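User: I've been trying to design a sequence by hand for this structure and keep getting stuck. Would you show me what you'd pick, starting by listing the structure so we're on the same page?

Assistant: Good idea, let's start from the same input. This is the structure you sent:
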């Protein structure tokens, strides 16, 4: 099984002060894709620079030629399917069909209340995501959509000429719970996980591997329930949130060992964070670039 290596570039740099350079360098290093987070602000970066995901990806699309681009991940927290669909078909057009939409149910971070609403309960997040994703799927594949929902509605929403990619740009659905996995099985071209968050603080790498193995098995069952071959879905691991933390980026050998273990679980894509000094994503830039250029070949 061929493993692809991608990176995620957090939108913390002004475009003309290092932002553009990182996206162009990602292409030069041969990454399969470069993603960014779709938040209004995020964790320890809340009080520093943080730019919008879709404008950043639009700029990246004009600064690169081959690199796939996308979000990890967009959520309903501050978006609506109708407006998001219009932005996505525009971005897919500008990029020449290089966009992947990472999408999930959202969480309780700063985005959850930034529009002045109360944070949604886990059930409401799941309910909203269950309505948001199918409507977005329709909006990106049909020329005109009308739908009345409990949370999201569309009235003669037009998205002509549609996506460059056919029938639409791919969805990479982030999910670990039963409802989210069913959505991934039905609507996803890929599935995304960060592992089991309960293991991040006190778990072991071995426990993490077993937890992720269980997630993969549940995805397989969700696919089987609707008669879909789970092999049709790419399986994407966003690193940095397992008990291994940044250790896989300490050397090429460490990364090859980590990536090989997860490839054997069925993963087709590993995503590593572009180093950010003095943060949870601090790493040696030279080692990071060596991993980018040498690790995949060692995995065979």
């Amino acid at each position: 099984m061929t493993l692809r290596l991608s990176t995620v570039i957090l939108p913390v740099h002004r475009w003309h002060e290092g932002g553009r350079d990182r996206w162009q360098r990602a292409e030069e290093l041969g990454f399969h894709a470069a993603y960014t987070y779709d938040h209004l602000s995020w964790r320890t970066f809340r009080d520093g620079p943080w730019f919008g995901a879709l404008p950043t990806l639009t700029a990246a699309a004009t600064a690169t030629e081959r690199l796939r681009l996308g979000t990890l991940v967009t959520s309903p927290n501050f978006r609506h399917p109708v407006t998001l669909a219009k932005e996505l078909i525009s971005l897919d057009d500008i990029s020449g069909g290089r966009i992947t939409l990472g999408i999930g149910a959202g969480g309780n971070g700063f985005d959850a209340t930034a529009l002045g609403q109360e944070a949604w309960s886990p059930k409401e997040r799941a309910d909203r995501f269950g309505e948001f994703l199918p409507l977005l799927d329709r909006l990106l594949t049909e020329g005109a959509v009308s739908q009345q929902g409990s949370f999201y509605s569309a009235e003669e929403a037009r998205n002509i000429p549609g996506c460059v990619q056919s029938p639409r740009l791919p969805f990479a659905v982030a999910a670990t719970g039963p409802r989210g996995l069913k959505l991934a099985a039905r609507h996803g071209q890929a599935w995304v996980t960060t592992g089991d968050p309960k293991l991040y603080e006190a778990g072991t790498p071995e426990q993490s591997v077993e937890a992720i193995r269980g997630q993969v098995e549940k995805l397989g069952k969700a696919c089987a329930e609707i008669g879909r071959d789970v092999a049709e879905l790419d399986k994407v691991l966003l690193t940095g949130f397992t008990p291994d933390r940044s250790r896989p980026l300490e050397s090429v050998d460490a990364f090859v060992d980590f990536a090989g273990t997860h490839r054997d679980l069925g993963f087709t894509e590993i995503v590593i964070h572009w180093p950010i000094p003095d943060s949870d994503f601090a790493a040696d830039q030279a080692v990071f670039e060596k991993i980018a250029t040498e690790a995949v070949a060692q995995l065979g």
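That's my pick for every position. To get oriented when you compare it with your attempt: The CA atoms of residues 213 and 265 lie 6 Å apart. The helical segments are 15-28, 53-63, 81-95, 122-141, 178-187, 205-225, 252-263, 285-299.
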